């Protein structure tokens, strides 16, 4: 996935000449996503669409040298900026010195994916694109009751986030994200709005967490959705007839039976929800990769002998038939369809996480 874009203002080239913002000597690295959002109208549009109140604390991820930061400080009570590059931290601190906003800015140097995020009301982010999916998942599974996140993504990724049933880009990413949040596309940002221009266009997306969150076991939910989108254009009947799927589900059923006896390890494991920091490696896309192997993925069983009982197969297919789902395809299913299917399977003691 291509690197993302940064709203890093005041950059100069190696020649050392001053640019907007008055800072010199900073060389930006394209490979780290350090492209500069140079269009002030786009910066202002992002701030306007964020809906910031004068009492808000704003978390800004990837502030660069602060073009967007300065506009956010004009609107918010406080801005907490998380920046991994120590050079940019220094430039941001210098930029805000001796301004009325110096006391309103807190800068945290570090990797946002490895940092414990403080309280905030609104998140505004221009990020390296390789962390797009993990960051969305981290934000949506944290306990903080933030109001919205306004994030710049690669345009295609943004379109996948907002995709609806029957859309070409409808995927596990869209289903999982929209379970936890309302997602809307705000504006497309062409590559020529950045210096140097990246290879792709960008889009700004608004993500509003559902409060309260849906009463769904996320491990069970993701296990079902992952299976269904392994072959999203196959019917569910075909997917749930696969020997690897049936063997996996019957093994899960045995684990759940043991859990009901009160086995401590099984009880602890079953109570876990998926977490971006612990369930998968930091560089994985826990919401995006429709075919990645995971604890609930039958691909892990390739090369093994798949054993399941005929009675269990009949049991699984009976649930599909009772919901009139055997001939349906994942690409055609809505959120309500997935929720109803998960409830029916769980009620029949069929589970998608060990």
Automatic annotation (TrEMBL):
PROSITE patterns: RRNA_A_DIMETH, SAM_RNA_A_N6_MT. It comes from the Eukaryota. The keyword Kinase does not apply. CDD domains: AdoMet_MTases (cd02440). Residues 280-291 have a biased composition (Acidic residues). It holds the Pfam family RrnaAD. One of its GO terms (molecular function) is rRNA (adenine-N6,N6-)-dimethyltransferase activity. Keywords: Methyltransferase, RNA-binding, rRNA processing, S-adenosyl-L-methionine, Transferase. It is an enzyme of class 2 (transferase). S-adenosyl-L-methionine binds at residues 35, 37, 62, 83, 111, 126. Residues 42-211 form the Ribosomal RNA adenine methylase transferase N-terminal domain. Its EC number is 2.1.1.-. Residues 280-305 are annotated as: Disordered. Belongs to the class I-like SAM-binding methyltransferase superfamily. rRNA adenine N(6)-methyltransferase family. This is rRNA adenine N(6)-methyltransferase. It comes from Apatococcus fuscideae.
């Amino acid at each position: 996935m291509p690197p993302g874009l940064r709203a890093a203002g005041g950059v100069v080239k190696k020649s050392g000449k001053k640019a907007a913002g008055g800072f010199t000597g900073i060389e930006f690295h394209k490979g780290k996503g350090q492209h500069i959002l140079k269009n002030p109208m786009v910066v202002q549009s992002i701030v306007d669409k964020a809906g910031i109140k004068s009492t808000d604390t704003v978390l800004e991820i990837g502030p660069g040298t602060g073009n967007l930061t300065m506009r956010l400080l004009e609107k918010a009570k406080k801005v907490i900026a998380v920046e991994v590059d120590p050079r940019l931290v220094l430039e941001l601190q210098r930029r805000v010195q001796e301004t009325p906003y110096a006391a309103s800015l807190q800068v945290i140097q570090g990797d946002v994916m490895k940092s414990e995020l403080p309280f905030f009301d609104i998140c505004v982010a221009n990020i390296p694109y390789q962390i797009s999916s993990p960051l969305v998942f981290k934000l949506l599974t944290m306990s903080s009751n933030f109001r919205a996140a306004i994030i710049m993504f690669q345009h295609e990724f943004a379109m996948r986030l907002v995709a609806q049933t029957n859309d070409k880009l409808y995927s596990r990413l869209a289903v999982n994200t929209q379970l936890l949040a309302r997602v809307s596309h705000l504006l497309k940002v062409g590559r020529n709005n950045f210096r140097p221009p990246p290879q792709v266009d960008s889009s700004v997306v608004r993500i509003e967490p559902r409060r309260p969150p849906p009463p769904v076991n996320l491990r069970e939910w993701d296990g079902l959705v992952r299976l269904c989108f392994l072959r999203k254009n196959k019917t569910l009947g075909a997917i749930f007839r696969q020997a690897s799927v049936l063997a996996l589900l019957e093994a899960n059923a045995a684990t759940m039976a043991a859990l009901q006896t009160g086995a401590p390890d099984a009880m602890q494991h079953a109570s876990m929800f998926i977490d971006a920091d612990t369930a998968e490696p930091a560089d994985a896309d826990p919401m995006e990769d429709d075919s990645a192997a995971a604890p609930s993925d039958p691909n892990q069983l390739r090369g093994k002998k798949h054993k399941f009982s005929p009675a269990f197969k009949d049991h699984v297919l009976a649930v599909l038939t009772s919901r009139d789902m055997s001939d349906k395809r994942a690409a055609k299913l809505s959120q309500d369809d997935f929720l109803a299917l998960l409830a029916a399977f769980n009620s029949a003691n069929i589970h998608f996480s060990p």
